[in-house]
Amino acid sequence: MEGVTAVPSPRSEPAGPSRTGRTSLAAALLSGALGAAVALLATRQEWSEGTATVAGGAFPLTAKGSDVTGVPAALAVVGLAALVAVFAVRRAGRLAVSAVLALSGAGTVAAALLGASDSTALDEKAAQASGDASATVGALSHTAWPYVAAVGGLLLLVAGLLAVRYGRLWPAMSGRYERGGAPRPRRTAAQADPDRPEELWKALDRGEDPTGA
């Protein structure tokens, strides 16, 4: 009895890069969108509070994140735009946009941490409330919202680093939205119907032979 030689079945290509691309893409989208939302939300909250002396009494003052610094909110918008733009470019362009996304996250973290101990906004409000340009805020305290904004910036930074590292594995915008280099075929006029006189006259007006000869 002759031996039977088993024919090995063809192996499918490893799905590792594809799986890694999908996983990193989902993580970057979630991290970037959540980070931008958190940073924008945090800048609308109270970052610091204190008092100013007005007419011999203590006048309470508060400052929102947007009063302290507008950098975190601006960079969060830039980061969100860069996250969307990653899919509209390829190769070197995608790497550059990914770097912008990462830098916007890093800048958001730095600006939020610097604003966590800033008293300039409250000092200006104290000077306005008291009518004394040299007045400063008293009983100064800060909330945790600047650090929440920093966490949002950190999430944007993570999204940018993922895009830099794995962006080459991510899909790009569909080619149907891009202008192809090949010329579009010209539309040929429909041949006139000889049974319809009005069509014959229209063909003659266009300089065509209605008989198709």
TrEMBL record:
InterPro entries: Trp_biosyn_TM_oprn/chp, Trp_synth-assoc_CHP. Coiled coil: none annotated. The chain crosses the membrane at residues 25-43, 70-89, 96-116, 144-164. Residues 1-21, 177-213 are annotated as: Disordered. This is Membrane protein. It comes from Streptomyces variabilis. Residues 193-213 have a biased composition (Basic and acidic residues). NCBIfam families: trp_oprn_chp. Signal peptide: none annotated. Keywords: Membrane, Transmembrane, Transmembrane helix.
